[in-house]
């Protein structure tokens, strides 16, 4: 999914794209009141936020205004060889 940095997006989606956790886990963090947007606790994952304008904190840690780049790996392995990525 494509996160556009200058359009309002759902809070849970922005947190997941920023690498905080999976989208479902981000929703749980929001429901638990561990996420603040512009200084107020947010308890609705569908809240629209603009990552470039809003100040977002999770457990007291600020989310960066820039999203991390996505990394893609192309792997070619012979049949019968198992790949372990950590």
UniProtKB/TrEMBL annotation:
Highest taxon of source: Eukaryota
InterPro entries noted in UniProt: RsuA_PseudoU_synthase, S4_RNA-bd, S4_RNA-bd_sf
GO cellular component terms given for this protein: chloroplast
GO terms of molecular function: pseudouridine synthase activity; RNA binding
CDD domains per record: S4
GO BP field: maturation of LSU-rRNA from tetracistronic rRNA transcript (SSU-rRNA, LSU-rRNA, 4.5S-rRNA, 5S-rRNA); maturation of SSU-rRNA from tetracistronic rRNA transcript (SSU-rRNA, LSU-rRNA, 4.5S-rRNA, 5S-rRNA); plastid translation
Record's keyword terms, sorted: Isomerase, RNA-binding
PROSITE patterns: S4
Residue span, RNA-binding S4 domain: 9-68
One protein family per Pfam: S4
Presence of keyword tRNA processing: no
Keyword Methyltransferase in annotation: no
Family: Belongs to the pseudouridine synthase RsuA family.
Name of the molecule in the record: RNA-binding S4 domain-containing protein
Source species of the chain: Aegilops tauschii subsp. strangulata (Goatgrass)
């Amino acid at each position: 999914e494509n996160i556009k940095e200058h359009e309002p997006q759902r809070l849970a989606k922005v947190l997941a794209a920023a690498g905080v956790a999976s989208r479902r886990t981000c929703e749980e963090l929001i429901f638990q009141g561990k996420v603040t947007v512009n200084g107020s606790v947010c308890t609705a994952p569908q809240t629209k936020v603009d990552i470039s304008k809003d100040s977002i904190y999770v457990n007291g840690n600020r989310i960066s205004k820039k999203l991390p780049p996505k990394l893609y790996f192309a792997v070619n392995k012979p049949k019968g060889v198992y790949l372990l990525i950590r």
